[in-house]
Amino acid sequence: MTVGEEQGEAIGNQVEPDEVLDDNLGNTVIGGRARAVLSYIAGSIAADPDAVVVDTDESSRGLRFSVHVAPGDMGRMIGRRGRVAQSIRTLVRVAGAREGVETNVDFVDE
Question: Could you tell me the domains of the chain?
Fold first, then answer.
């Protein structure tokens, strides 16, 4: 076994980014990478990651993500002076740009 094959086996156990982009039917999801990035970041920041829900709306201008979190986590998502929210929006915008999709992230207070 060569070094490349050993590395391939180690990498094979990880989830490839393209696997996240497919739905259960085998179709590629538009903006799947951006949504995966948003879900991961929001879940990591929230004290209650199970309460994080990301809704997606498609429009002519791109994708709009609405993030719903537990009421106690809204302050964590926004941060002081909105710095955390702006950083999340920037990261999701970059992930969407890699797929050629414009994105917008809204934090919904219920």
Answer: 3-108 (3.30.300.20)
